[in-house]
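Quick one:
INPUT:
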């Protein structure tokens, strides 16, 4: 049963992405429920400045976590940086929040923001997929 479900999901993802090159069509009614924020130190940033600001950055990041704004946080494995799953539904709100962190205020760190939402192709299983 589990193997058939996994195979079915793989097929749906493949078919859903075949037209647009994405796992999900661009025009869906799937809401944004989280934002993935990938943060890296800006090229050419002064390492000494970054290290001096880092304790305040960590403190303020922990406060965002304790306040429920950051759901999960990770370090990047292929390069220096962080990845946050944010409990916000709008990339603009995420940007404003992250720019208020000390490294953002000092223009030493930038974030790539990716809106996330429920897996739209699962609608194929529920009968609620949009009609072509």
């Amino acid at each position: 049963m589990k193997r058939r479900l996994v195979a079915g999901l793989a097929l749906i993802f493949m078919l859903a992405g075949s037209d647009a090159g994405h796992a999900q069509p661009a025009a869906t009614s799937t809401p944004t429920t989280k934002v993935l924020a990938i943060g890296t130190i800006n090229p050419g940033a002064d390492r000494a400045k970054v290290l001096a600001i880092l304790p305040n950055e960590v403190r303020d990041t922990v406060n965002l976590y304790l306040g429920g704004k950051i759901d999960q946080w990770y370090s990047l494995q292929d390069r220096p940086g962080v990845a946050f799953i944010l409990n916000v539904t709008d990339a603009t709100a995420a940007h404003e929040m992250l720019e208020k962190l000390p490294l953002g205020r000092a223009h030493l760190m930038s974030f790539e923001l990716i809106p996330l939402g429920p897996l739209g192709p699962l609608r194929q299983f529920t009968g609620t997929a949009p009609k072509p």
